[in-house]
Amino acid sequence: MTRVLVTGGAGTIGAAVVRRLLRDPDYEVRVSDQRDAPSWMREGCEVHRGDLRELREARKAVAGCPMVIHLAAIVGGIANFHKLPHTLTEVNNALYNAVIRAALDEDVERFTYVSSSMVFERATQYPTREDHLPDCPVPRSAYGFSKLTGEVYCRAAHDEHGLPYTICRPFNAYGPGEMPEDEPGIAHAVPDLIAKSLARPAKLRIFGDGTHTRTLTHVDDIADGIVTATGAAAGLNEDFNISASDELTVAEIARICWEACGNDPAALEFEYLPPFAVDVERRWPSVEKASRLLGWEARIGVRDGIAATVDWLRRQEGVATTHGR
To answer: Among 139, 156, 225, 282, which residue has the fewest nearby CB atoms (within 10 Å)?
Structure first.
């Protein structure tokens, strides 16, 4: 049995990764997070709670774990990227310094870095393949730059010290586990749109004119892709887009959320809010490499996935009445 460290394991994607690992009898799991781990995680995993920016804590977390899946980072919706540019850059880089150093010291067998589709913030190729990255303009957002920096750290540690790595880039994660926020754009789009739709406003607010595109990928699919890539020989020293394949406009996504909440499709009207200074106009990855090398593909359809997310959010106290008005 192989012990896997999941940093940031109490987050939305992290928790999905932990659940996926626990279903596999070949793995035991250690979670490292500064947030409180839920009871099911404390019962099924070893839990380390500490600041992974400190090398001493990072070494404690990594010790005895041949595999590391590094998710710990400051994340959130697009408003968060504009609100906290220095904070997320400072924190994420400090995490790379300590966690990758600890992984090198421990001589791990696989270090999986969970990057972001935002490294392709300025892509010019669609669907966007992994090999487009060297030719893709550098991200304008601090968040996209910080996630790209993590990829550079991995490759640099491999080139100089032989770090065995895998890079996974989730695209537009959604699903149970992420709550909406009172300020639009701080959380990701789907929980915000569902919360607004549950509140049944006269007009549903969206950023931009609704023509921007995203490729929504359920967190359980993302978790399966990350674990598959981490355990596969074919994933060694490779990078993968971990994503569904259906490109949807923001207006189409909003309509799916609206209808999944039981609202009359004919009653949907939009209020268009100004877009953010940095906002990706198109996001549509190629998933051919993951299919070819890993035999992996996303399986949860967007309508089914959003319906399940609506059911989960309905059970969270106050969501249907305190957002979106």
So the answer is: 156
**pLDDT (tens digit, 9 = 90+) per residue, 308-322?**
999 999 998 666 544
> Does residue 293 sit within a domain?
no
The verdict on residue 75 lying in a domain is yes
Task: State which amino acid sits at residue 210.
Answer: G
Report the CATH number that the domain containing residue 68 is assigned in CATH: 3.40.50.720
Catalytic annotation, residues? 143
Supply φ then ψ for residue 243, to 5 degrees: -160, 160
Residue 12 lies in a domain: yes
Question: For residue 37, which amino acid is it?
Answer: A
The Cα diameter of the chain in Å comes to 60
Joined tokens for residue 276:
């953010």
Overall average pLDDT of the 241-246 stretch: 98
Q: How many domains does the chain have?
A: 2
On whether residue 292 sits in a domain, the answer given is no
Q: Across the chain, what does the average pLDDT equal?
A: 93
Where residue 276 falls among pLDDT bands split at 50, 70, 90? confident
Same domain, 115 and 252: no
Q: Check whether residue 164 and residue 270 sit in a common domain.
A: no
The reply to whether 228 and 194 lie within a common domain is no
pLDDT of residue 302: 98
pLDDT reading at 140 higher than 50: yes
pTM: 0.94
Q: How far is CA 66 from the centre of its chain?
A: 23
Q: What is the rounded (10 degree) CA torsion for 277, 279, 281, 287? A: 160
